[in-house]
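Request from the bench team (R.T.):
"We need a structural guess for the complex before ordering more adenosine-5'-triphosphate. Sequence and SMILES attached. Just send the tokens back."

Command: build protein-adenosine-5'-triphosphate structure.
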Amino acid sequence: MAERKQRIWQRLRDLKRSLTIYQYGRRAVELVWETDWRLTLALGVLTILAGLLPAAIAYVGKLIVDSVVQAAQSGLRGDRLMSLSYLGLEAILVALLAGGRQGLTLCQSLLRVLLGQKVNVLILEKALTLDLTHFEDSEFYDKMTRARREASNRPLSMANRTFGLVQDSLSLITYGGLLLQFSGWAVVMLLGATIPAFVAETYFAGAAFRLFKWRSPETRQQTYLEVLLAREDYAKEVKLFQLGPMLLQRYQAIFRRLYAEDRDLTIRRSGWSFGLSLLSTAAFYAAYCWILLEAIAGRISLGDLTMYLTVFRQGQTTFASGLSSVGGMYEDGLYLSNLYEFLEQPVPLAQGYAHSGLIAEDGLRFEAVSFTYPGSDQPALQQVSFHLQPGQKLAIVGENGSGKTTLIKLLTRLYTPTAGKILLDGRDLQDWDGEVLKRRIGVIFQDFTRYQFTVGENIGVGDVKYFEAGDRWRSAADKGTATPFVESLPEGFQTQLGRWFKNGQELSGGQWQKIALSRAFMRTSADILVLDEPTSAMDAEAEVKLFDQFRAVTQDQMAILISHRFSTVRRADQIIVLSAGKLVEQGTHEDLLQQNGRYAHLFRLQAAGYQ
Ligand SMILES: Nc1ncnc2c1ncn2[C@@H]1O[C@H](COP(=O)(O)OP(=O)(O)OP(=O)(O)O)[C@@H](O)[C@H]1O
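Reply to R.T.: structure attached below.
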């Protein structure tokens, strides 16, 4: 007994929670209002017009029939004129209704475009405020993808359905008002018959959404496979390794699985929907039958009969459309809840406001810095400490996965250390103003982005303030040793790169690296340069040239260099060796050779390879 009671309470709680989804109707209308209040106002007025006019037309229809009967019986000219004027009135109302409906469609079409753009911009703006951690979290990524996928249509659809429901409700209320003259019981009977269909619609819309949410990982896989199969950067490997058929097969297998689930739900939904709509149709026709009998018995006029007939016919269509609005609104509401969940994701607070350090010219200090990636149980860095003075060049050496890139991510504040401190000029990195810090650090990651922009713009991205400044591009390219090859390109700095756009040129790996390196020199005010594997794709001569040049142009700057090439590393003022996240050796090339430890071992190994 107690268990049953509990179940009933649970159901009621579920229903209450389901109903809260409808509050998104208000939020969607607010969003539409913010997008364009004039169009929204027009939409509102036209909705009321389109909601009230049908009942008015039905009523005028009754007046026409009654006046025709009257005129036929009396044969008076006045009565004839009266029925003709009712006819004229109906024609005007019908024209108004058609105009109103057309206006509604027009407003909706315009709002669709504006709203789609607005929501997309809201999502992208939000994405800009988020941390890198969010992007690396697959659940969060799904949330964003879902929001983006549905961005352009759900809010408008929700708003349209809300307005549509208002329109249908107004029509039904006015129809109800007309019907009330006949019998209050008929109205109650008709309303009662709609409730099961309403509950079923809500239930199935919820089920459809849950399905959509569960399968986000599968949909993500599908999208990824599409990218692999259809993008030019993967085409080379897909063709040579003959991956195509296998990838396509996976793609289809996912589709088949998703389709099977979809089909089951759609069949069940349509079965229930049909069954329950039969119930409401039965109620409609029972009331209809009652009215017919009343007319035959002469208790209502012929005009009344015509009016009720119209009210019934249209009432049922309006009811069906209202019902689908309710189901649709529920579904839209669920998608919108996902959109708002994303938009309301707490934004990391702006960290720090300091524009200068506490100890001028102190340089960079790592003090017992440790870091573990979210969701990982192994620390990527443990208790790392070192000091880099202004003008010094530091090289970081270590096997794959030893934590070199992680160290750079902490230095550039993409992540925050889990323990320990990073100090710049004696001040904790977290206390620095983000903008100031970014201006002081020029960084190139090994997986730098190859933008499908022009050569100049590809360098310009290094300092967005000077994104299009040709003179800055040139001097940055000089420092990054890119000028000679850029000048050999057909349109120099204006050459389009990549294959996505017309006349796009592809570059070699080493040429791309030179572009990326030049990017780091765009920030002329940067006093810390961080280069993660900057020369891995360059030939030996290019590398030597680059480093001679690098030393010359970065005399006053601190530089941190990650490299597996000892020819590069040995020139640094200070070298640190990382192993499994720990700093195991530290010193100059000579010091480390003397220590005869890990560095000396790796150095000799590489040197032997060249003999
Ligand atoms: N985003 C991430 N989330 C979780 N773990 C990560 C992430 N990035 C790196 N790791 C882990 O942290 C450790 C250090 O990685 P890191 O990229 O810093 O190595 P690395 O020294 O730069 O390697 P390589 O020489 O191959 O570039 C590795 O064990 C890696 O698996």
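Two things stood out. The mean pLDDT is 84. The longest helix spans residues 77-129.
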